[in-house]
Here is the input.
Amino acid sequence: MISIDKAAIFWSIGIVVIGVAFASYSMYSPTQSISTDYQAVSPKILHDDVFFTLQGQNSVGNIDGDIFNAGEKMTYVSISKDGKLILATSSASDTVFAFDKQGNTLSEISVGKTPKGVKIHPTENIAFVANENSDTVGIIDLNTWKLIKEISVGKMPHNIVFHPNGITAYVTIQGGDEIVIIDVSSLTKTDSIPVGTLPHNLDVTPDGKHLFVTNIGTNDVAVIDLTDNKIIKRIPVSLGHHGIDIPPFGDKIFVSGIGDDKINVIDASSLELISQIQVGKGPHGLRSNPQSDNLFVGVSQNNEIVVIDIDSLRIVDRLSVGETPFWLAVPGNP
Here is the structure.
């Protein structure tokens, strides 16, 4: 059970995220200068499919300016590889909304209490949803739109990522300071990995060898070698809550921090923080496109999607998209 002290830390961090922390800078900075470069937009950017939750509008939006009405406090969003199915969680109504690419509502699925992360399995037959106040991961059948199972995983599960082989799922357990491992075939919890204080979001390398986990309590990223499930490195980053994206191609890893104004850039080979990019107040959701040439960042306090050229690390566009863009999804980068 989460201790009173830990719960207090969690909620105090949440308060900081909402308010005062936006005026603060991270206590850690890399030796490299912070990039503030900006250049004209490249036309190819506008052809990428990018979807995002808009917490201030109780909706889901896309980069073309379309808005899909949904539920209160829209939090996380996931998209199928072909871009035809979008799932998004309403944390206040305990619902997962399903849309097609055009924004038509396909279903509204009742799940556990306070759903946060949602992830479509590579087969596109099922999806996992982390129910933070039910201490479960729910399994949704995407053919029937039914919740078919809930797996008890521990206190305050937050988000999910699937191993590239599709056999294993990893879940951040904020109340237990660990990662829980789920076997997809049997839909059972099989193991756990101690990782750090308040693990939040996570991603896995395309080769399936390493898992990267952001920790709110220590403002770092834990790198886990999946051959033996051991932490091999901790990388300091800016103030959380954090999002993370490992592009399908390339040699960089990107970490946001909603309590700051920067995107952290990690070299995938050396596992060192090599740069920080100032994007505006409250960056959280971020996803690269399948070609790994553009990174899209939801800047929650500026109501923008910022587009970064991954090669040059320059900001190439700022798009006004609606109130409080929170989490992003891009086809081809699950």
Q: What stands out?
A: The chain has one helix and 29 strands. The helical segments are 4-18.
